[in-house]
Amino acid sequence: MMIMKRSAVAAAAVLAMTLSLPAAAEASARPAAPAAAVPQVLPIGVAVSALPTAVEDRTGYQRTSFRHWNAGDIPADGCNTRAEVLLAEAVVYPEIGPGCTLTGGVWWSYSDEREVTPAGALDIDHMVPIAEAWDSGASAWTPARREAYANDQGQPAYLVAVTARSNRSKADQDPAEWLPPAPDALCPYGAEWTATKLRWGLAVDEMERDRLLDIAAGCGGTDVEFTPAP
User: Fold this and answer.
1) Which end of the chain lies in a sparser environment, N or C, as judged by fewer CB atoms within 10 Å?
2) Does residue 178 have a cis bond before it (omega within 30 degrees)?
3) Omega prior to 75 cis, within 30 of 0
4) Model confidence pLDDT, tens digit, residues 65-100
5) Torsion from C-alpha of 176, 178, 184, 189, nearest 10 degrees
């Protein structure tokens, strides 16, 4: 009688294992969730030295290769990326009207240290201009990745509200060709430029790297924080 009971228990255990195999196999076949990117913090000199160096090439560049502004990080809010950046950076919050029309509000343009109002007087500056990104590696990206770059709100100070005059003076120039006129903006600018290139895996040319190293030499204690782009 005891042997029969043990046999029944063993059979039940085998049956349970058999029934669980498909579920286990299905679970093992599911792709693992991608690990969240970990923010990295480096001293500015170390960060600049980590940038790959390459000759820039603008062959085939068109501004339309980088779709912007799209529906932004919160599509349900009815505001595009430009408006979301303006709302995030407002010193005095504007009124939001139909179609995400912004009325009033005050902003601080750090590159030339000016208070700006209204929203229409501001440009949204890509820290590393899209033409420079193309030259530095984005020419090989898919259209979807270039759109993600043009609308990226995941890196602090990558998209920045600045005076139209400042943005148009900068145009598509790198730090070897243009730097913000406000002295206090130099170290943050060098760090944020470097962070953007590291985040997106973009290269620097030799003159750009040398200028960034010069900036780093005068910005002791400045860190570069970035998170690799998804």
Assistant:
1) N
2) no
3) no
4) 999 999 999 999 999 999 999 999 999 999 999 999
5) -70
